[in-house]
UniProtKB/TrEMBL annotation:
Organism of derivation: Trichodesmium erythraeum (strain IMS101)
One biological process term in Gene Ontology: DNA repair
Keyword DNA-binding listed: no
Name of the protein in question: Haloacid dehalogenase-like hydrolase
SUPFAM superfamilies linked: HAD-like
PANTHER family: PHOSPHOGLYCOLATE PHOSPHATASE, SLL0295 PROTEIN
Keywords annotated in UniProt: Hydrolase
Length: 268
C-alpha cells in the first residue's frame, strides 16, 4: 500500500471504543447479568472490581464473556494471567461450572433490553464521547469527507447518542448490528455502492477486526487505523508495526487535519 493518498473521501468509524466510551454501561450490564446468573444480591460491587473490569475489557470478544470476566475476577484470578490466558480461563470456567455460553449471552441481552425499556435515558447516560470526537464529526459533516459509522451496536442507539450531542447523520450512514454483516463485508458493499473513485479510511479499536479486513485483496486500498485510545492493549498497539497496512492513530492525531495523520508501521 502506498502513501500517495493524502485524504479520504469516506471516513468509516467504529462507534464503541472509537467515538464513544461505553465502559460504564458494559460493566453495569455485566454486573446485573452476573447477579442474575449466579443468583447473588444485586448490590453495587466494590470499585476495584469495576476498575479491573475496565482494564481487562480488551480481552472480551463476545458479549457473554463480560459476566464471565467478572466471575474470573471474583474467583481471584490475577489480571496479568487473564490478559495472557483469557480464552483458556473462560473455557475452564465454563467447563468447571457447567455453563452454557448461549444462555449467559441471552441473559445479558435480556438484561440490557429490559434496562433500555425501563430507563432509556439512564442507559444512554452511561455512554460518554471521547474528547474531541464530536467536534471532529461536526467538522466532517460540512466537509467533502463523508463520515460513515460501522458498528456492532444497534444503529438506533448510536443514532440516539449522537443526536444528544448535536450530530445528526443520515440514517443510511449509521450501519449497526441490525445489518448482520461482518465489517469487512460492509466495507465491500460501500466500495461497490460509492464507486471506484471512493477512498475509504477505516478507524477501529479492535486489532482482530482490522486483521480480518486486511486478508481481503479487494479491500487492500482501504487505509486501516487502530485507535490507540480504544479497547485494546499496549501489546496490540506495539504489534501494529508488524502489519504494513495498519497504522496506529492517537486521539490527538484524529482531531487534527488529515494531512497531519502519521502513517506508522513498515511500508513496502
Amino acid at each position: 500500500m502506498t502513501m500517495a493518498i493524502k485524504t479520504p473521501t469516506v471516513l468509516a468509524l467504529d462507534f464503541d471504543g472509537v467515538l464513544c466510551n461505553g465502559l460504564s454501561e458494559y460493566f453495569q450490564t455485566a454486573w446485573r447479568t452476573y447477579s442474575q446468573f449466579w443468583q447473588i444480591s444485586d448490590e453495587i460491587p466494590l470499585n476495584d472490581l469495576m476498575e479491573k473490569f475496565y482494564r481487562l475489557r480488551p480481552v472480551i470478544e463476545i458479549g457473554w464473556e463480560m459476566p464471565l470476566l467478572i466471575r474470573a475476577l471474583i474467583l481471584g484470578i490475577e489480571e496479568d494471567t487473564i490478559f495472557q490466558e483469557w480464552q483458556a480461563i473462560a473455557e475452564k470456567i465454563v467447563i468447571q461450572e457447567n455453563l452454557d455460553p448461549w444462555k449467559i449471552g441471552a441473559c445479558l441481552d435480556n438484561t440490557r433490553d429490559e434496562w433500555i425499556v425501563k430507563d432509556l435515558e439512564g442507559w444512554l447516560s452511561l455512554h460518554q464521547f471521547y474528547p474531541g470526537v464530536v467536534e471532529k464529526l461536526k467538522e466532517l459533516m460540512v466537509s467533502e469527507v463523508k463520515p460513515i459509522i460501522i458498528t456492532t451496536k444497534e444503529g438506533r442507539f448510536a443514532r440516539s447518542l449522537l443526536h444528544k450531542v448535536g450530530v445528526n447523520l443520515p440514517e443510511a450512514d449509521i450501519i449497526g448490528k441490525e445489518s448482520k454483516r461482518p465489517k469487512y463485508e460492509t466495507l465491500k458493499i460501500l466500495l461497490a455502492k460509492l464507486g471506484a473513485r471512493t477512498t475509504i479510511w477505516f478507524i477501529e479499536d479492535r486489532l482482530k477486526t482490522l486483521l480480518s479486513i486486511q486478508k481481503h485483496p479487494d479491500l487492500q486500498e482501504v487505509e486501516l487505523f487502530l485507535a490507540d485510545w480504544g479497547y485494546n492493549t499496549q501489546k496490540e498497539r506495539n504489534s501494529v508495526a508488524q502489519y504494513p497496512s495498519i497504522h496506529l492513530l492517537s486521539s490527538a492525531q484524529f482531531c487534527q487535519d488529515f494531512s497531519k495523520w502519521k502513517f506508522g508501521g513498515k511500508k513496502e
